[in-house]
Amino acid sequence: MLLEASVVLEAEDLTVELGALPVLRGVGMSVRAGEAVALLGGNGSGKSTLVRALLGLLPHQRGVVRLFGFPLRDFRNWSRIGYVPQRSAALLGGSKVKEVVAAGRLARRRPFRPLSRADRDAIRQAIGQVGLSEQLNDDIAGLSGGQQQRALIARALVAEPDLLVLDEPTSGVDLDHQRVLAEVLGGLLAGGASVLVVLHDVGPLGPLIDRAVVLSDGRVAHDGPLGDLGQQRHRLGGHEYLDHGRPTPHDHDEREQLLGGAMDP
Amino acid sequence: MIEILSYPFMQRALIAALLTGLIAPAIGTYVVQRRLSLLGDGLGHVALAGVGLALLTGTAPIPLAVVACIVGAIVVEILRQRGKASGDVGLAVLFYGGLAAGVFLSGISGVGAGGLTQYLFGSLTTVTHNDLTLIGLLAVVILAITLGLAPQLYAVSTDEEFARTQGLRVRLYHIAVVSLAAVTVALAMRTVGLLLVSALMVVPVAAARNLVRGFTSGLACAIAIGVLTAVGGAAASFYLNAAPGAFIVLLAIAVFVLSWPLSYLIRRRRAAAVLPELADDDELIAAHTVTESHPHRHAPGCGHQAVQHGNHTDFIHEGHRHAAHADHYDEH
């Protein structure tokens, strides 16, 4: 076992301007192997922009992003990353659930090759993990919002990623769906993968989170354990991200419970 | 059918129609998915510049039209990717520039704008052996890419950002799609014509979406509709002495119109197939017919004969059976 967990995602002095408007102003943050990091902050604080810049979906004007030690432009091993965008399933209408999920396997596939047995197994397994096995052949447009969100999570899981990046996976989704999400993330973390999740409020995911990075006006306002946020609440202006969070000293125990004792001491 | 096949020009016409019916919906599926349904129409205008140039230089029109179309398609795609606010106007300038250039060039070549008509509306019976060879070769390329790279093209056309996180070179794929659409448009100018080819790229795709579920099935179904209407239209126009391009497109639109009631029937059948699985007691659900107002209250000894029916009791009531269900009675 490594004494110091390696860094899977890292940003230094990241500056992103949309139009002439600076949205991120010198953001520095990292996610280590096996770590679950929550990205918090109010509306317009730059959370989604940061996630998209980290994945190279938005160009940055200054700074460095490294994925698994590689500078963004040299990074090729995309199957190590699973991405769940903010709900975009509406665009996918006319596709079966299994077709949507299969797209998440593309980083592992070569052009002009049919799906391998391993691909098919991974697709069926990912769909089962999010509890959509019955809806395998359904049009994604006919599913509920929560089910669509889960299909997008399956699409990210199907690559068997080492880092899962989720952009507000809990917004507009009821508690049952959030619990499925917590289970899936717990399983991933237990397997040694890392998670970076943008959240509006922590909700049922709270016990899983190791560390919170709080953005405010395009800068990192806090980077540390979720529990520490309580003391800073007033200084940060009492944002709503704490309202449903449960930053208690027992978080670690709860997380172990959720993982079913699968975590090594 | 024997008669039609005995003419070499009709043989070539039918093969050209078959190939057009194959490739237009194959590439059209991705074009429609990207909401570029009218791209083919615009590219048809640009192709005319190539035809005009061919008339002026006395060379074969299809190769030059292919080149003009690809250049136009790539310009369109670059304008789109740059996200220029004036992209819309840029497209219009490009398309009408192509049309004007075509008319202008054919004018000074001495043929005149009238010589363009056969390309605008197709002229299946004038397809030459060389045309057919070129159409065949390019059709193989288009099918190999649209079917062989279907998973990649699907991802890129439905969710561009996600496709990028799969390491796909999204811009390259976009350029490939519009270029293949351009080639298809140029090839189809012999069969359905430049003004109508866009219909064969879009209409079978729209009809297929009404008829089958899922992207892959939609692609296959669109190609089937394309082939049937193109070959059927070409053959029928021979007997009816009709313009084949127009007839093919009208046939495709007829299939699209028919696909609406058909999709309704298919959905009803699917729903009916699902219901019995969901129901614990098939009979109960299948026969949930509520009686008209029913003041009488059935009970053992009420005067109506009681019959055990599954897990409940029905009462014989004027020749049919009533079963208590919440606040009303069902006809069983």
How would you portray this structure in words?
The complex is a heterodimer of chains A (265) and B (332). With 265 residues, chain A is α/β, with parallel strands linked by helices. Chain A is 26% helix and 24% strand. Chain A has 2 domains: 1-68 and 163-169 and 195-265, 3-Layer(aba) Sandwich (Rossmann fold), CATH 3.40.50; 78-161, 3-Layer(aba) Sandwich (Rossmann fold), CATH 3.40.50. Chain A has 7 helices and 10 strands. In chain A, the strands form 2 sheets. In chain A, strands 6-7-8-3-9-10 form a 6-stranded mixed sheet, with helices on both faces. A 4-stranded antiparallel sheet of chain A has the order 2-1-4-5, with helices on one face. In chain A, α5 links the parallel β7 (163-167) and β8 (194-198). By secondary structure, chain B is of the alpha+beta class. Chain B folds into 2 domains: 2-199, Orthogonal Bundle (ABC transporter involved in vitamin B12 uptake, BtuC); 296-331, no CATH class. Chain B is 70% helix and 7% strand. Chain B contains 14 helices and 5 strands. Chain B has helices spanning 2-5, 8-33, 39-57, 61-82, 87-108, 117-121, 129-148, 150-158, 160-164, 170-188, 197-211, 215-240, 244-278, 282-286; strands spanning 289-290, 306-309, 312-317, 320-325, 328-331. Chain B has a 5-stranded antiparallel sheet with strand order 1-5-4-3-2, with no helix packed on it. Chain B starts with a helix and ends with a strand. The A-B interface holds A 52, 55-57, 76, 78-79, 81, 83, 85, 88, 91-92, 94-96, 99, 102-104, 106-107, 109, 111-112, 115, 137-139, 155, 159 and B 33, 148-149, 151-152, 154-155, 158-159, 161-168, 209, 213-216, 218.
